Structures are given as structure tokens and as C-alpha cells.
Fold:
Amino acid sequence: MPNNCDITAVILAGGFGTRLQPIVSDRPKVLAEISGRPFLAYLLDQLVSAGIRKAVLCTGYMADMVRDCFGDTYNSLRLLYSKEETPLGTGGAIRLALPHISSDVVLVMNGDSYINVGLDIFLDWFFEENRQAALLLTKVNNTSRYGRIGLDKNKKIEFFEEKGNNSGSGWINAGIYLINKSLINRIPPHQPYSLEKQFFPELAGDRLFGFCFEGQFIDIGTPESYAKAEVFFADKKLE
Structure:
């Protein structure tokens, strides 16, 4: 089992944030302020708490603003940047960042969602067995906005259900992944590619696992959810 300090983290920070544009128009979504801090700072705090020492920020829209805000270090983290010149999607962004990734397993985080979990718990579970890829999942009362994920008894992910198809409670993608670098290498370079719609569904039923964790979860993708973020972070208590 590798030490957490040897793991490279990758944060997907290049999104345009179309739905958030009406209220956050002067900066990329990851720099949207919550209690006077950019949202990205809360994700970096999680990495620091888990002992991660290196993070690659996959930037795109207003990329220079992200670099100007955070520079080359954050607390004990060394920050590197992988800049998309044209939108590549979540999978394409990670493929572009591959030269910066120095560990065999990569910790990937969406730049617009947060779950109140100690990342070391997820890492320990992943390395208990020879897993190749895993998603951190959380349970919500209404899966219609996110899409539902189906698991077998061994926590293998069997299927992904599209958004809007089911409004009941269930497990959803919490936006944190562990992926073997050899799998990322299979993503076609320099072209748009989606983790959610292409990469993960192709692994489902075979090499993709889900780590189920019922923690407090929020994303800031819409004005409504962003409006709740300040209360969320004021109330949250780390596990």
C-alpha cells in the first residue's frame, strides 16, 4: 500500500459553469466564493488533511485566474497546472494531465462538488484489494438530478442510470475517484472524452467498484445549490 504522500491528486477545475453564470460570471466555477474563500480551497484542504503532497489542477475556462489565485503551493501541497486550450471533457482533461501524474493510482476530484469525508478512508479501502478503479458514492433522497448507480453485493458497479429516470433514494456519484494510471493511458489523447458517459460505463460490470459513504454532500453547479453552500460549510464537521 503506497503512502498517501506519494499519490498524485487531480482536480477537474476547467468547467465553464454555464448554469452558475447568472450569479458567478467574473470567475471560473472553482473560484466561486463561499464564506470569503474560493470553493477550490475546501477541496485542497481535504487533500492536505489526507497527507497528499501533490495536486494537478486541470484548468480551462479562465485558467490564468486559477493559477494567479493559488500559485505553486497550498499549505503542504505542491500545485501543478494542466491547461486545456480547447474543451476536452473530464476524461480528456485527465489524459492531458498524464505527464504530471507520478503515481500508479490517481485520486481525481470534481471541482464543483464536496463530500464531507476523510479521503484516507477511501484510499485505505481501495488498496485493501487489487482494485483498478473506484468511485466514491453517497446516498441522496432524490437521484433524479444526479443519476443512480447500481451495485452488486461485492460493491462492483453494475450500471449507471441516466439523470431524471428515477426520483427515489439511491447511490450517486460523489465526484471523487481512484483510477489506475494504466487505464487513463487508454483514453484517446487530444480529443473530448467523458469520464461519466464513456470511461466509467465501459468499466462497469467488470473492474469498477463503488465505495459507499453516507456523508454530507453538496455541489455548486446551480444557483440553488450554490446558495446553500455557505450554510453547508459553516455547519459541516469533519469525520
About this structure: DSSP finds seven helices and 14 strands in the chain. Helices lie at 39-49, 63-70, 89-96, 119-128, 181-184, 195-203, 223-235. The two ends are 23 Å apart (CA to CA).
